[in-house]
Design brief:
This protein is of the alpha+beta class. 50% of the residues lie in helices and 15% in strands. Strands 2-1-6-5-4-3 form a six-stranded mixed sheet. Helix 2 packs across helix 3 and helix 3 packs across helix 6. Keywords: Sigma factor, Transcription, Transcription regulation. Pfam families: Sigma70_r2, Sigma70_r4_2.
Length: 311
């Protein structure tokens, strides 16, 4: 990663200019660490407030300073979020974000962006997750990560290696964008027509369906396992599809389906697949997460203006 080394002046205009340029990266770091667009936005806003109050002429590298502040704050938020999620009713899924305007969300690579991987990353502790994100998605050097996390270089190498090992236990093979969309379209079409046999043909034997509703009525509160059960769940409520308007959206770099009723989005459907078929079906019903997805569409455009000044 190229690190800016020139000190900057103290004018607020300069502060805004630097922050706006780096904001997509800061959001991308916070979002991958937290799995929540709303929490990531809060982190970025707090970093902006700190940046305003900083003695900026003494900052040699704004990108290093802001990356450090974002990462450390995101780790703190992640630690408290873990406690809150213990009371979550049913499966918890990361908040999907609209990536139609920024496919990689500020990163140098789209690594650690797909919902299925973000979900697996929940198994990492916040420091492991942050180190992995900085290295794999943003290409920070081990020395830079050590500085950000205030750890030794040896320790950081071990942490990143341990995170990779944890994640390698999960199947990471995936299909290309076109095949992913074809599978999703075929799944939706079969579900709409109640074609269980076609659904089963799309799914792997060990497929799992996860429904995130935080206790909403009618939403499965446990993972549904197995090809037949997943197919049956997708067709169990014909009215669900009959009254729905379904359209494609870009969610976390992949095609997803936004399902609406009476013009109101109620569900986001995404999936993970390999050459063997669809192995994970993810349904987001939680209204706050759907609202966050809709809000994320304006994130990249609002970032072109000045951050909110709450001084």
């Amino acid at each position: 990663m190229h690190v800016e080394t020139s000190p900057m002046g103290n004018s607020l205009d300069q502060a805004v200019s630097v922050f706006v340029e780096l904001r997509p990266r800061l959001f991308g770091i916070a979002y991958r660490v937290l799995g929540s667009a709303a929490e990531a936005e809060d982190v970025v806003q707090e970093v902006w407030l700190r940046w305003q109050k900083t003695d900026r002429p003494t900052v040699i590298s704004p990108v290093a300073f802001l990356s450090s502040a974002t990462t450390r704050l995101a780790i703190n938020v992640a630690q408290s979020a873990r406690v809150r999620r213990e009371t979550y009713i049913g499966p918890w899924l990361p908040e999907p974000i609209d990536t139609s305007t920024d496919p990689e969300v500020g990163a140098q690579r789209a690594e650690a962006l797909e919902l299925a991987l973000l979900l697996v990353m929940e198994r990492l502790n916040p420091t492991e997750r942050a180190a992995y994100v900085l290295r794999e998605a943003f290409d920070y050097s081990y020395a830079e990560i050590a500085e950000i996390l205030q750890l030794s270089l040896v320790n950081v190498r071990k942490i990143v290696s341990r995170a990779r090992r944890h994640l390698s236990a999960e199947p990471r093979e995936t299909v290309d964008t076109a095949e992913h969309r074809r599978l999703l379209d075929a799944f939706v079409s079969a579900a709409q027509t109640g074609n269980v046999a076609s659904l089963e043909a799309l799914l792997t034997p060990a497929a799992v369906s996860l429904s995130d509703g935080n206790g909403m009525r009618g939403v499965a509160r446990v993972p549904v396992l197995g090809r037949a059960r997943v197919a049956n769940l997708a067709t169990a409520y014909p009215r669900f599809w009959r009254e729905a308007d379904v359209r494609s959206v870009q969610a976390n770099g992949r095609t997803g389906a936004m399902i609406s009723r009476d013009g109101r989005p109620t569900t986001i459907l995404t999936m993970a697949a390999s050459r063997a078929g669809i192995h994970k079906v993810m349904w987001v019903f939680n209204p706050s997460k759907i609202a966050a997805f809709l809000d994320s569409r304006s994130r990249s455009t609002s970032a072109l203006g000045a951050p909110r000044d709450v001084s």
